[in-house]
Structures are given as structure tokens and as C-alpha cells.
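Researcher: Go.
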Amino acid sequence: MNIDQKIQAIQALMKKKNIDTYYVSTRDDHNSEFIHPYFRCIEYLTGFTGSNAHLIITDKECRFYTDGRYTIQAKKELKDTCIQIIEDENFLQYLKTRKHIGLDGKKVTKSFVDEIGSVTSIDFISEIWNDRPDFPMDPIFILDEKYAGKSFEEKREEVLKRCKSNIHLLTNLDDIAWLLNCRGYDATSNPVFLSYLLLNSNQTVLYIKKDKIKDDSYFKNHHIQIKDYLEIYKDIKQIQEPVTVDENQVNYELISKIKHPVFQTNPSELIKACKNKIEIENIRQCQIMDCAALTKFIYWLKTNVRTKTITEYDAVKKLHDFRKVLPEYIEVNYGSICAYNENGAMMHYQPSKDHSSILKPEGSFLVDSGGQYLNGTTDITRTFSLGKVSDEFKKDFTTVLKSHIQLSKAKFLYGCSGIQLDILARQPIWKENIDYQCGTGHGLGFCLNVHEGPHGIRWYKTDTRKEDTILEEGMVVTNEPGIYKENQYGIRIENDMVVQKGNKNMYGQFMYFETLSYVPIDLDCIDLSLLDKSEIEWLNQYHHKTYQLLSPYLNKEEKEWLKEYTKKLA
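Model: Structure:
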């Protein structure tokens, strides 16, 4: 079936069940952002490949909603279909106007259903998806304590101490992976595994497809009981005591079976976000190796683009080659964004073998990428020139750099959140009457989700993250302002940072950001006249440290190139 035929098939099923509206999201049964192909219902129905969208099918039309990161992409991927892209309307407000709403209750949360009112839980997509990918069955693996920094028992005790009841149900895949010190391959680029976890003072029960555990000795040694993945839906109904759950995370169908739910944000969310000292030291080492790989790639591309035919897709593969040889490497942190000139304006553009621009020794190239490693997770973006760029591009690039520097240099009193600090990054860009339609920064997991809550940096609060969360010592967060001009170019400069304690005095506890990522910022793209003395000093110090950290991992030619590209500016 083509896209229009699939929508019509859903509409026919709706008519049989007397449902006038059917809602579909990009989430799986665990409210994950990045999901296994088995759960990609919107991609199956529409062809849209982004990580955030909402599809509303009625008896007369099909409405599609996404955020500013994916608007340009959606227009291309949904072109010539019956699907209408809605840009200036909240999908929740529209749903509230509908009477008979159907949805898959495993793909939404209780808080979502409370927002829109009464629903019928029904899965229409499984009825028409005949060639659905297989359920993921890759084995899980143990993350050694030398990386994790704490044992399962230590983490378990911390979590239970903060729970409002004696029994706690966890469904977030990254929280489960973090707590158990285990990892897997069940979500695209996030090393998690499909499971549920039930714990109390006496026992821990992991619900998982049993074939995914090839050696159960770790679980026996830690007194963790293994039960089949879907048994949680039966077992949870039998519990008569209060159960602590996060109503913004547990799916509607599962939470509906709990007799006495106690609503509380998962305690593991905040504990996990504040990296321990062993994790932070691992992250520092991980960042050096990852940054060296990206620097090698930039040198390779700048050197070869004049003499070889290279496509964006070729660049993705080459970047992967530089990373995959690193000793603790597992996989990429998401599909690498390698975008030439105007393709950079699509924030989450990903080239494919069949749709990929040929690079020329002119214009700009944006690479947003990272890796999953046993000793950390990285997320870094560089935009650089492949030859001559316009004065307008240089002005915009320098404006983004000013924004990046302002946030990097921030000192703030404890109690501040990302909402309060966001303006530091946006102010230089707002002065030009420009904005970027995304957050300035997001939390970053440890060998876990590339987008991790609860904290973030954005000027407004979102449904999926809590940007008003206080920035605590040990939180890792990205710094990634940008400028995106449709049909021209995209510019982003992104580093990872960790929140640290500074001076404490009569005014309170001061905090600051320690930069973790060190990759050269392209001097060929900078209009030096737009930088003030303090900004030039920051850039010089940054480049000095970049050379110090990375040069031991580069060959002679790469090292000479890096020395030139990190030279001191007057």
C-alpha cells in the first residue's frame, strides 16, 4: 500500500469501530524518543523519519504536526500525499475538540490521556502492517562498574529511599539500564533494552524477553528475578499495595491496571543526571578520543574535497570509520547529520545512499554527530568551510560563535535553571532578529540516551523535558546555538559541558560550566571584527587546549594542520 492507501485503511477500521479520530505518535511502549523500527508507526504510515511527530486521522482528513527541527524535512517527506502539515496549531488543542478518539494505549501516557479526555484504546496499525520488522531480540550486556562508578545495589538503595511508597515500577528504558548497569541495542543509537522493572525492599523483578539474556549469572548474583516481558501487565494487577509510578512516563494501558498508583517523578531521573566522579573522569577521556576522531575527519574532508568526488553519504561513512576503531566504541549516538550548504538548514537532515549531495570546494558543511562508548556518550557539532563562503555566512557564523562563548563562560548562583541561562546564548542571535527553533542544550546520558532529562537549556518549558530543573553539580549538558536559513545554510557550534561548583561565599554557591569537547572552530568562517577582546581570548584559550589534548592522537600531517587551525588570534 502507498501512503494514501494506508490512511484510507485506518479510516475504514475507524468507521467499523465508530471512532471519528485516531491518534498516532512517534513513541514506543516506553515513551522513548528514539525507537526500534518495530515501533515506527508514523514512519510506516507517512514516510516521515524524524523523532517527533503527531498524526491525527479523522474520517475526512489526516493532520500532521511536528516541531521546528523537522518542519522543512516533513514538507519534503510528505509531499504529494493526502497528509496536511499543520504548522501554527497545537495538536492537543485540536484533539480536545474531537468526540470519539481512538489510540494505542501503550503508546501514550496517563497524563496525555488526562489532557484530552476519554479515549478508546485500540491498535489499528498492527492490523494493516503486514511486513512489520521483527521485535528486537539482541542480547543485553553488562556495563562494568569501572565505567558506571556505582553498583546496582548502591543505585537501588538510593532510588528506593526517595520513593513515596514501598513498591516502584520503572518503565523508562534508560532508567532501567542505568539502575541495573546493563545496556542493549533495542533503540536506535541509545544502548537500552526493552523491559520493565519492579522493585521493593525485598526483591527486584526484571520483565524482559528471556532469550535476550544469554548468561543469567549476573542477575542471580544480584538477586534479580527474570520474568517474561509482557507478564508485567498481569502481575501489576495483582498488587494490592500502593505503587510509585511516573504518570508522565508509564503508558496508559499499564498504569490503568494499577489499583493504588502513587504519582511521583522517577527518582532515578535526577540521580542518573548527576554523574558521579568516576563517570565524569571516564567522560573526559571519552571526549578526547571522540574529538580526535572528529578532528581527523575534518582534516580529511578539507584536504580531499578538492581532488576527490565525495558525497554527504560518503562523509557519514568516513566519519564512522574514524570512530569505530576507538577501543570503547559501541555505536553512533544517532544517525550522523552531514549536511552541505542548504541541507544544513534542515536541523535533522540525514543523507542516504540514493539522496546525497556531492561536495564541492566551496560553501559550508555541517556535521552533527557523536558516539556511544562504554566510557560515555558524546554529542558535538561543527560547521566549517570547504572553500569560499559569503560575507553573510561569516557574519552568521561569528554570531553563533558569540552565542556559544557567552553560555560557555557563564557563572551563576546555585538554583538557576536552563530557562534562566538560555538568554545568554540567544541574545547575540536575537539582536539580529533571528531565532533557532529548538533548545540551546539538552542533558546527555552516560553510555545512554543522547537526549537525557530532566534538565535542559531553553527559554520556555516543554512537555518532554523540564528546563526549569535546577542545574546540579555533575549534570552534563550541551551548548548548541545555531542559525538556520532555508535554502541557504545551517550553522551550529556544539560542545558538551558539565556543571561544576565554583566559589562559595556570603552570596551563595556559585556554579560554572566545564567544557568537555575540544575540536577546532573553523577560523576561515570567522569575521574577526565582530569579536570583542574577551571573546578572542576565550577562543585562543580554547584552541590552545584543543591542540594540547588532541595532538598526541594525530599523525604528523594532521598535527601540523591542527597547529595552524588553532593558532593564536591577535
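Model: The first strand starts at residue 21 and ends at 25.
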